[in-house]
Amino acid sequence: MTAELVRGQNHLLPQTRVEIRISAESPVTPGATLGGEDGRVSDPSRIAHPGAPQLPGLEVPVQAAAEHRLAVDLDAVPPDVERVHVLLALPAGVPGPRSFGAIAPPSVAVTGLDGTAIARFVITGLDSESAVTAVELYRRGDAWKIRAVGQGYAGGLAAMLADQGLPEAQQLAADIERAVAEGLARAVAPAPPPVAGQPTGPGARRPQRAAEERQAQAGPVDYRHPRRAAAAGAAGASGGSSGGPGTPGASGAPRAPASAAAPPPPGVGAGAGAGARSGAPAGAGSAAGGVPPQSGRPQSGPSAPVAGDAPGWSMEERLYNQVWGMFEDLARTVAAYRSAVDFADSRMDRELDQLLADPRARMGSIADSARAEVLARHSTLVDRAREVLDRDLGQLVAEAGVVEPALPPAFASWASPVWHEYEVPEDAPMALRLGDLHLPEHTELRVPLLVRLPLQRGLWVDSGTSSLGPGALEGDHEHGFPDSAERRALALDTAVAHAARLLSVHPAGEFNVHFIDPGGTATTALTPLLHSGVLAEPPPKGAAGVTDTLTRLTQRIDLVQMALRSGAADALPPDLDPAQQLLVVNDFPHGFDDRAINQLRYLADEGPSVGVHLLVVADREDAKGYGPLLDPFWRGMLRLTPTPDDHLADPWIGHAWTYEPARAPMGSRVLEQVLAQVAAARRALRR
Predict the structure, then answer these.
(1) Which one-letter DSSP state was computed for residue 275?
(2) How far apart are the C-alpha atoms of 478 and 480, rounded to whole Å?
(3) Which residue has the higher pLDDT, 291 or 345?
(4) Whole-prediction pTM value?
(5) Rounded CA gap, 224 and 227, in Å?
(6) What is the pLDDT of the chain when averaged over all its residues?
(7) DSSP string, 619-651
(8) 262 to each of 194, 196, 199, 215, 521, how far by Cα in Å?
(9) Which of 114, 407, 430, 579 is the most exposed place for a label (fewest CB within 10 A)?
(10) What is the DSSP letter of 464?
(11) What is the Cα–Cα distance from 202 to 210, expressed in whole angstroms?
(12) Could you give all domains of the chain from N- to C-terminal order, each with its CATH number?
């Protein structure tokens, strides 16, 4: 199973001979450095680049390209090498984008020599940077691990090399760029772009590029998180005027980079922006390249939506890919619409400024007529863009109407009738639904938020204040935003619902849940788990309960890791539980001492690779007393909220999506009924 890494996360390499595969939308210059324990490189002979592509245990390609494979033999690197950094840079002096913010996020995949995927990292959050340290391979005892870095440099290749500690970084960067330019001069010209006029739109299913599939599987990211600060700019603010690419507009959502959603020429509408499930550049939508209905070209009508209308070996895989296709379609069509409106606004402002600059056109009937014409042109462009948006949204609504009822329990909402026919599965699913996502252009069109299983990162249910402010909780507009105690209760209920879903989609006995509740405040929320028998007794209270649970899970991680490294997985103690484990931590960090916090960080960092997962209910503000100690802990987790919040961004455009948590409907007993079947299956397994 491929580990989907996020910035700062690491993963154990099961072998020392690997390939590092790089995929980008534009040619990039590859490189790698051999560094010491501190990661610094003092000798220029220890950097592999297109002008010097080979080092002991390392080989990089000799020219810039959109696809690269780096060969790495970690047993062959010099013994004093502790870290291998993989570097990417946009080539200077050749046509193409000048920053990573202008293209879709590049991705890095680590595979075995046979192509077996080990880990993957999509480098999101880049903006003005033209060079990036993508990943690092580093020693940990007798083993090697990979860490997702994603450190960008607006100063380009020279700044990145200087940060690595290389002397004369400017001259070295110039030598590398010269080698790249010579290589590109000898390269074969790229294939011509696809022919315009091919069917697009949500009904047109065409194979998706591998790079976009990897971005889709990486899923949405928390753009307000520090790791996305470079891309989101001031995205944590609730409003403000547009300040250029990457800054929030009046709606509080970050605008797409100019090259990611180029405005259409005058007279052209937003185009079929939802049809970007093709080979078009990620983020481009159809704002500039789509064929407008007014062009006179024949338009093929949208086909009737069908559930499972996507590539895949099984219906589950096809539905998974279709849901992500809908997510991408909605992102792109809204990007095209917003781009068209931005263009109309800027054109209107420019034309009005020109009128004001002419004293003869400032007053009188001629001036009024000229202003009316400007406003009419603006209205025509906006109406045309909205018409295309409504057409695409209508197709997506129709598709959602047939896809939602066809989803299996792991993908379905708690309100779905599929739970009434629920049976404990014999196999674990490929993904899990954590909630819904929507955009303000159509709040009723909800796209399921699916994450791959097994979980490769922890989940954090934030019990702090929502960024949406008062009235964010659906149905609570009259009474305002819930207070702190209500929000903590909602966060715990949400965590229990996630834990129940994880239990319900795994075979009996293959997934167990532990709770840490030092203050004893979770008993009411745990009622469904306790009454069903899935939890035999309430979680222990106080520091002793925290220490005992963390010690047992930490020892389990150590034992399994040692067994895997030594190739003796069958020698594990007979009393070790082979099932996957989920630890739910309530009201963190209250009741945790420094040792317990370090154990929890270790569990979050090392646990997912050996089947130990983490779900934390916490308000980050409460942890400020620990300073930056816990920053890596938060960065390595997927933040979820118990009330609607717009903290997630898609990997193509960067829209701020409103996240709706997955909780059982008010008054429903679906959780109790499902957990009762899970408990019965577990009892039958023990007999």
Answers:
(1) G
(2) 6
(3) 345
(4) 0.59
(5) 8
(6) 78
(7) -GGGGGGGGGGGHHHHHTEEEE-SS-EEEEE-S
(8) 18, 16, 20, 21, 52
(9) 114
(10) S
(11) 19
(12) 3-185 (2.60.60.30), 256-291+307-413 (no CATH), 456-686 (3.40.50)
